[in-house]
Design a protein that fits this description.
Elements: H1 17-21, H2 24-28, H3 48-52, E1 66-69, H4 75-83, E2 87-90, H5 97-104, E3 109-112, H6 120-123, E4 131-134, H7 144-149, E5 153-155, H8 162-177, H9 180-188, E6 206-210, H10 214-225, E7 229-233, E8 245-246, H11 250-256, E9 259-262, H12 276-281, E10 286-290, H13 299-308, E11 311-316, H14 337-343, E12 347-349, H15 358-378, E13 403-410, H16 415-423, E14 427-436, E15 439-447, H17 451-462, E16 467-473
Parallel strand pairs: 1-2, 1-3, 3-4, 4-5, 6-7, 6-9, 7-8, 9-10, 10-11, 11-12
Antiparallel strand pairs: 13-15, 13-16, 14-15
The protein binds 1,4-dihydronicotinamide adenine dinucleotide (NAI) and 2-oxo-3-(phosphonooxy)propanoic acid (HPV).
């Protein structure tokens, strides 16, 4: 990598994680796009200042940024990243852990969807990684705490696919109420089976929504417009859309609903949230739909409840283990339950397609890729899910001797005083700092910095005990 840090021999061979992840990329990361240009623009040439300094400290070039995109990230996102001049490798599937560990060693940016597990065990090999883009809503697949503590920022797309999920829910509610996937399968096999027994209109029925966030509240509006009554349960007190009504407990919801849909994130509290005891509380002949995460529903308990007729129909979009890519065999994923699931009547099984529409994927591609570019080029953490949100108005590269310092550090007393002692030798034009839990993020634009001083400035910050990661953009 033609970067400044390569020119700094004393940093070679440093072997602790925090030091090695801060290698050349961070020191020399420079804005190679004009800060006044939008970040859709292709990289332009370096600023005069950066070009002039190239002999002493080669500025970071966007062409050096290595990006790995897994799980078929949409072309919209790929194009934005490529237009920056980054090296983008895009793969259609996720990777097994050992392959991921090999690949992640080298990259500065990784883009994933819901399948790829970025555990601490994987991330500890990611020596150059500065940012993770989840091109989806859920972030349970990433060890967010470990990432923050090692200075890796994580972004997602908080609502670009919510509507797609909500619309699928409406389709499934009607499909289950009319048993129409069974009728369709029968007719595909040549069997004419015209029945009305156990088939219902949805008008006047009660939908119980568990988790009234982006998806749940969209679904609420759509369901009411079909004449359904809506009740919802959430750990937070939330204003209901239309005439929907929040209930005090999960039990209240289960007892009061004809259809139950789940839209909670995967957390310790939501694992097996719907198991035998909860299913027993549901109305006889009720329906259950899970498009949240596979661990939320105890699948063997659901199978038993459907076999007994307690539950009249179910739709599952998510599973505890999902195949890594298209074409892979689903049979092996659920071990003992797959056969039982497949033999049930009135159950819709879909391959995690809740957010899989052209509209959602295209919007997610743009949203997450833009956040990644903003972070790589400018250090902006707006909408990050594991770091404090910090931004400053654009750095003016055209002004000579301007530098942006990013200092991710442990949130302990006394750090700001020491950092500002270091920055205080220069003119601090603007500065912002914020903390989130144990991690704090400081961004400062300083002027009156000669290129020859950047190395010392960087090293002084690196030497502070509180340091997690230092980046100097110039
Ligand atoms: N099947 C698919 O393709 C998709 C699945 N999802 C899943 O759906 C989940 C929900 O998505 P959004 O609505 O966008 O999330 P959100 O964050 O907007 O809403 C989640 C809601 O669940 C509530 N909640 C959290 N823990 C709870 C608990 N223990 N009990 C009751 N309520 C609880 C929160 O307070 C929040 O209101 C995501 O976390 C993701 O796992 C999201 C998009 C697509
Ligand atoms: O957005 C989410 O959380 C989803 O579950 C959708 O995930 P996907 O992008 O289809 O892997």
């Amino acid at each position: 990598m033609p970067t400044a840090a390569r020119d700094i021999p004393e940093r070679n061979g440093i072997d602790t994680l925090n030091r090695s992840v801060s290698n050349s990329f961070d020191l020399s990361a420079s804005l190679s796009t004009s800060p006044s240009a939008t970040f859709h623009s292709p990289p332009t040439s370096f600023s005069k200042q950066a070009s002039a300094s190239a002999k002493q400290l080669k500025p970071f070039q966007t062409a050096d940024v290595k990006v790995l995109l897994l799980e078929n990230v949409n072309q919209t996102g790929q194009s934005i990243l490529k237009k920056q001049g980054y090296q983008v490798e895009a793969m259609k599937s996720s990777l097994a852990e050992h392959e991921l560990i090999e690949k992640i060693k080298d990259v500065h940016v990784i883009g994933i969807r819901s399948k790829t597990q970025l555990t601490a065990n994987v991330l500890k090999h990611a020596k150059n990684l500065i940012v993770i883009g989840c091109f989806c809503i859920g972030t349970n697949q990433v060890d967010l705490k470990y990432a923050a503590e090692t200075g890796i920022c994580v972004f997602n797309s908080p609502f670009s696919n919510s509507r797609s999920v909500a619309e699928l829910m409406i389709g499934e509610i009607i499909a289950l109420a009319r048993q129409f996937t069974d009728r369709s399968l029968e007719l595909h096999k040549g069997v004419w089976n015209k029945v009305s027994t156990g088939c219902w209109e949805v008008r006047g029925k009660t939908l119980g929504i568990v988790g009234y966030g982006h998806v749940g509240s969209q679904l609420s509006v759509l369901a009411e417009s079909m004449g359904m009554h809506v009740i919802y349960y959430d750990v937070v007190n939330l204003m209901g859309m239309g005439t929907s009504r929040q209930v005090a407990s999960l039990d209240d919801l289960l007892q009061g609903a004809d259809f139950v849909t789940l839209h909670v994130p995967e957390t310790d509290e939501t694992k097996n949230m719907i198991s035998t005891a909860q299913i027993e509380k549901m109305r006889n002949g009720a329906y259950l739909i899970n498009a949240s995460r596979g661990t939320i529903v105890d699948i063997p308990a659901l199978i038993k409840a459907m076999q007994s007729g307690k539950i009249a129909g179910a739709a599952l979009d998510v599973y505890p283990n999902e195949p890594g890519g298209n074409g892979e065999n689903f049979h092996n994923q659920l071990n003992d339950f797959t056969e039982d699931l497949r033999n049930l009547k009135n159950i819709i099984l879909t391959p995690h397609i809740g957010g899989s529409t052209e509209e959602a994927q295209s919007a997610i591609g743009v949203e997450v890729a833009e956040a990644l570019v903003n972070y790589v080029n400018f250090g902006t953490t707006t909408q990050a899910v594991n770091m404090p949100e910090v931004t400053l108005r654009s750095l003016t590269l055209e002004e000579p001797n301007h530098v942006r310092v990013i200092y991710i550090h442990k949130n302990v007393p006394g750090v700001l005083r020491r950092v500002n002692e270091i920055l205080g030798d220069h003119n601090v034009d603007k500065q912002m700092t914020d903390s989130r839990g144990d991690v704090a993020y400081l961004m400062a634009d300083i002027s009156s910095v000669n290129v020859s001083e950047i190395k010392d400035l960087y090293q002084s910050l690196e030497d502070l005990g509180s340091r997690i990661r230092t980046r100097v953009l110039y």
